[in-house]
Predict the structure of Ribulose-phosphate 3-epimerase.
Amino acid sequence: MAKLSPSILSADFARLGEQTEIVSAAGADYMHIDVMDGHFVPNISFGASVMKSLNDFETAPYDVHLMIEDPDRYLGDFVTEKTEFITVHQEACPHLNRTVEHIRSYGVGAGVAVNPATPICMLEDILEYADLILVMTVNPGFGGQSFIRSCMKKVRKLVEIREKYGCEFEIEIDGGAKLENAEEIVEAGTDIVVAGSAVFGAEDLSQRVREFRQKLGT
Ligand code: DX5
Ligand code: ZN
């Protein structure tokens, strides 16, 4: 059983409020907010003001994914009553422990993401402090890319480590999730599945969320 976090990166930005309400009402557990700066990743998406424009809509809590350099400068901008997690990239944070504590100081869950080429051993000393570990299953920057299956071994490793050391973090995957691979993603031990194009590319958004939830066992 896993939760669903649809990524608004693939939504119709001109109808963002309406579409996020539809997917939330249909059962999305979080709204995944992909922030890209054109430096850490080769694409620019949107910033905190776009996320905050959703505050007056009936949406699921925000699951913020910062694909930006020097995230500490902007963390406060993403804190709202609806912000559940703020996730930063291990590769973008030389003082990761400080950044994680900074996120937690706002009373928000702290997430750490790893790119496909970053091994889990790089997270060894942060796991006990993190609320969420985000395993990228595509190279970050764009929606609609193909799932990199080999990244799933990191999910299995994280499940083992969590059990062995009694850590509490949730495990999320992001990139290339589809109805077709949802079951194998859950079987590996994923707690939260991000899906962008596979949700917002559908004709009927509510129906697609319901189909996903069925595959995820919720
Ligand atoms: C990729 C983003 C993902 C993306 C997922 O850089 O972090 O959240 O929106 O999109 P899909 O599900 O289409 O691969
Ligand atoms: Zn993301």
The helical segments are 16-25, 48-52, 96-105, 152-165, 182-187, 197-200, 205-216.
